[in-house]
Amino acid sequence: MKPWSRYNTLFSSEKFGFFLFNALSGTMLELDRRHYERSKALRDGVENPPDETDSVFLKLLEEKGFLAASEEDASSLMQLHYNRNAACFGTSTLGLCICPTLSCNFSCIYCYEHGRGEVKTMDRETIEKLVSFVKKQKDIRNLSVTWFGGEPTLSLDIVRELTCRFLELFPGYGNAGMVTNAYLLDETWIAVLDELRIGYIQVTLDGREAVHDGRRMLNGGGPTYRKIMENIDLLMNSRWRGKLAVRINVDRSNMDEFSSLREELMQRLNGKKVSVYPGHVNTYPIHPYHFRCGLCPDEWSEFLLESYSRKGIVPRGGFFPYPGYSNTCLATSRYGYVIGPAGEIYKCLEDVGNREMVVGSIFAPEPVSNREMVARYSTGVDPFTDKTCMECPVLPLCGGGCASKRLRAKYYGQEGMEYCSVLKNSLVPFLEAYIDTRRSLEICNQLLGKGSGTEKLNGYRMVQPERGNLNLGENPLESMLEHD
Questions:
Q1: N or C: which end of the chain has fewer CB within 10 A?
Q2: Mean pLDDT across the stretch 376-391?
Q3: Model confidence over 406-442: pLDDT tens digits?
Q4: Peptide bond into 459 cis (omega under 30)
């Protein structure tokens, strides 16, 4: 018989019963007591006399990876590693996060761009060099763009000019994204969003009016909440065809604001293409805001679980931890770049304005000159070459965490940098929350005559969500919007 996989989690839930989860295959079994005890014996290496039903159950455990030789687990991890590399080193898509200016009309208390030198806006020469830089990327077939800053709505003419030039190079170019504080997202901007191919906008709020205005104020002081809400109403009642994401920043000082503001927004924007979700304020340990208000991973996990238990709020993507994710993003991608307003090139949005993190310039004959930094962001923070990660039972679910935070912890000595997934210490509570959502759905389906209930055939059943084959090598450049 094959040994018990290190990626198994066997647990007894006081409310829901007995369960067995495998992080590599993403399979979850609901068990009756007899099969739970049998599984516990397998885990503990206790020999039990076989019975006539054992062979079917054991075969299922082998098929789904619960019983697996160490080389089989290693082979599955190797495939995950391959998929990560395929995502990092793909050449079909050029992903650009463009900062037309580092100027901003806000002075948010936790902004990582504060004090990072000269505020500059793209000039004509930089625009031309950026277009030339895009032309020189011969391998690419697709262009993906996110407008960032500073505050991109301060630079409508630049966004318009570059969009026109990109359309000349890529007639199929479309569905760009924009991260904005929305204070200037007025009728003029809204009227041209479709023309600018902006199909996704992220707007940040920090709570209801009084709390928000104390955290996200205008330069020199002044409220912003009401103007943002007015502009959101204008946007969502316009003919714009895109989707809005409202990120509500959450830390220790405003966490009680989230559920009430979310409820208000969902009612206000009912029927619109909008999502409202909590955003973890990610300040670094050296930031003066960090120790006072930052939530550690365990506190963040507790916040998500309490939001569900008290208000029924399910986080984006649900509670079930799908396997196969990896720490791939714009920063780790071969053709993923952040372009600053002076033509400087970075690999991560968190690096904007930090001269030490510049990897090149679009003005240089060889635009990407700091190859060491590029390598650090891809292979240097690869969790599959990290002994600690390789021994962690949630690696297939976590994928190594944030690449930027890993880099800062590994190469820049920023002690206290927390990049591990909340699942490391909260896997069982998340699985229990998923079970609760599933049970609620099953009960509703029963009442509507659409389901058969929660019975366990033969004493066990698979209860993971139905999902098609995960495209683990999918382009990481398509999900660049996740920032304060």
A1: N
A2: 94
A3: 999 999 888 778 889 999 999 999 999 999 999 998 8
A4: no
**Dihedral (CA of 335, 339, 343, 344) sign:** negative
pTM value is 0.91
Return d(Cα 130, Cα 109) in angstroms, integer. 32
Q: How far is CA 233 from CA 14, 100, 187, 274, in A?
A: 45, 26, 11, 12
- Asked whether residue 298 is domain-assigned, the answer is yes
The SS3 of residue 193 is: coil
Domain count, the chain: 2
Query: 285 with 291: CB under 8 angstroms?
Result: yes
pLDDT of residue 53: 65
Residue in 301, 257, 276 with CA at minimum distance from that of residue 418: 301
164 and 23, same structural domain? no
* Predicted pLDDT of residue 413: 85
Mean pLDDT is lowest, of 67-71, 224-228, 353-357, for 353-357
Contacts of residue 333, defined as CB under 8 A and 6 or more positions apart, other chains included, come to 87, 88, 90, 95, 378, 476, 477
Separation of alpha carbons 456 and 380, rounded Å: 46
Q: CA–CA separation, 166 vs 127, rounded Å? A: 11
Q: Are residues 237 and 136 in the same domain?
A: yes
- Pick from 95-104, 287-296, 299-308: least confident: 287-296
The Cα–Cα gap between 67 and 59 comes to 9
Q: At what angle do helices 124-135 and 156-169 cross, to 10 degrees?
A: 30
Look at the block and give the residue holding tokens 């040994």: 3
For the chain, what is the mean pLDDT? 90
C-alpha–C-alpha distance, residues 223 and 117, integer Å: 26
Q: Residues with Cβ < 8 Å from 266, sequence gap 6 or more?
A: 276
User: What is the rounded distance in angstroms from the CA atom of residue 411 to the CA atom of residue 315?
Assistant: 32
In single-letter form, the type of residue at position 306 comes to: E
**Measured distance CA(477)–CA(335) in Å, rounded:** 9
Of 406, 405, 389, give the one whose Cα is nearest residue 397: 389
